[in-house]
Amino acid sequence: MDAISHEAVEGALRRADAAGRATARALLRRAAGVLAPGSAEAADPAEVLCRAAAVSEELRAELARWIGAAAGAGSHGNTIVGGDHHAGIVQAHTVGEIHWHTAAPPSMALPTPRQLIAAPRRLSGRTRELAELDTMWQGGGQREGPLVAVVNGPAGVGKTALAAHWLRSVAADFPDGQLFADLRGHAPEGPVGPPESLAMFLRAFGLTAIPPDPAERAALWRSVTAGRRLLVMLDNALSAAQVRPLLPGSGQSIVVITSRRRLTGLGLEGAVFHPLGVLDAEASAEILAQRVGASRTAAEPAAVRRVVDRCGGLALAVCVAAARMAARPGQPLAATAEALDHGAHRLAELRIGEEAAVRSALDASYRQLPPDAAALYRLLGVLPFVELTLPVVAAATGRDEAAADRLIEVLAEASLLEEPAAGRHRFHDLIRLHARGLAEVHDPDAIRTAAVRRALEWYLATATAAEALVSPNHRVLDRDYEELSPDAGLRFPDQRGALAWLAAEQHHLMTALRTAAALGWNGLCWQLADAMWPLWLRLRPYDLWVEAHRLGLAAARRDSSLPGELRMLTDGGAGLRNGGRPDEAVKSFGEALELARTVGDRRVEAQALHGLGQSHYLAGRPDEAAGFFRRALRLREEIGYARGAALSRISLGDTMRSVGRPEEAAEELRRARTELLALPDPYEASRALALLGRALGEAGRTGPAERCLREAAEEFRTGGSAHWEAYSLEMLGVVLQRAGRPDDARRAFERSLALYEGAGAPDAARLAARLAPPAPGTESGTAPAPGSGPGRAPGAGTS
To answer: Where, in residue numbers, are the TPR repeats (predicted)?
Structure first.
């Protein structure tokens, strides 16, 4: 490679995504082998360029220019043309051109996740295991389901590093997505259930409406992944049952699972098992040389042998010992060997008992920490969260962020903390257990308890700030803080930022809520559930919604908080209703109604009546629903709650339409629209307009119905509400179909279907069936059944 081309490629490499640089540097070696077919690094130029494209188009272009120019100067004058991130068919020979024929992209334009975690650039002592994985992949052949590999072995042996390293080496051949999930099989708070992991994966593809039913969620996952070439890494699995629902629905995908257990049950899915043992002495010494420096290890071979022996081939222990030595360049390696000797009798048991060796290595590393870093290490071990951000660490430990950041860096340098993503840190689960054990020995219970309380209150303060910004009408109940001030949490510039934080932190928020419940911090528990209202309303994680309010209701009752109990009953009832459990919702709203009457809270009484109406409607009881809506409407008008009255009027109108009284429905909906525009509440006013268009269409008034539905669709498009835009377009299609305009109707249905699919809405299946040719003797053009469409129940907005 000439100097100019080398500089160009290096420049492209520096501008590539940081996560792809290791892959890119490997490509440089393989590109050099293109013109030397007999060399060990020989490679097909098409393969080199395909892999380069996955890192950066600029890198691919520079490599293409270099390979083409070098080949022309050599003998055959080949040129490289085209290129794509999708795999294609390559026609190549020693003369002529290389043509790229790329496959069409999938029909559904979704984001392409790139979630693989960082991996070591070199993986010592694993040549055989990597070759076995290569053989498994290359010999996979045609299959119905994904290729499944299980890498199992004791904790700390290097399963995750092996899996991540190998997956990154083949990632360029899987352009449709690379997914990662830590299943936390041995975490103290318990493993992650398949529904939570499926929700995370579906959101990675841009889907926002996640079905509440686990089976429906798994079916949607298989549909989204069908025909796609994906890599999936499932780390720290506990059982085959935890993994099975997460397998994609494509025979072109690879799933690699790491686990301390054998997971033999996955043999039913044709899994290939790769047990991983400890490293041999040579590989362990090589890791030390890489991380400490070859000159230092060569100068003290006896000390290296002692350290290798004490670490027992456990990759985690070797890496921790190496970090300790690297951090002290002026200290003899024998000092580390001597430190490890303090646990020699336990280290000798490493080969059959994994924790003793890790504890010994971690003890030696811990003893070298400065006192303030050691204190941080211990306190982080008692926090219940899998990952930690700097603001949480600062709040939990009572330090400012600059000081906390400095100490986090000390722990990271000692390989005691990992950084799986920018700004996020986590312990290996065994290291966390080690830190927690030290805290129980060295830190009084009051100090440990205060640290946990501060971390949970930080989440409460930040969620409350998000609630105040996104749902100000809901933010009315008090918050109780013992350790922090109410303004201790984050502040957000806009609603988008607040919702993004809630989405990213929802599992940590749930961990905080569960921890508060377990520790008997009752006010903190129900207030967290209350503060997460924008998460429940906008992102709709129904299973978490229901669980949070079940725990919150019990806590509010233990706390003797009537406002908290009322809120948990009404908001929890909304979760049950929207999650497809209307009869349970009726019970929850009924309890709220009785309690509200007892304490004389007429506003909550009206809210409970409205919720009962929605629940009965969803359960297929429209006459009962209408009665509850009328009672809610009268009460809201009496107490002067104009917005609530308009929402009850929307629900009443749509219920009347559903029982064949569209003209009366239209009158209620027109009035609701006028009242909501006057408030103003544009989102709810647009919902009233869409339902008005549907009612007018069922009354046979095609022109006004079409105008209402087109206007509503545009208002929802501008406001960013894809569900209701899709609903308005679907109803427009129904109106146009009934009016004898099938081509216009089909265009409206197709636009609606694209929006439903993009949001992962269950309505997509219904609409796809509508677009299919009707079977003989069937009728097309019917509207959705009662209770279907966005929100499922009429007026299912915030009330």
So the answer is: 606-639
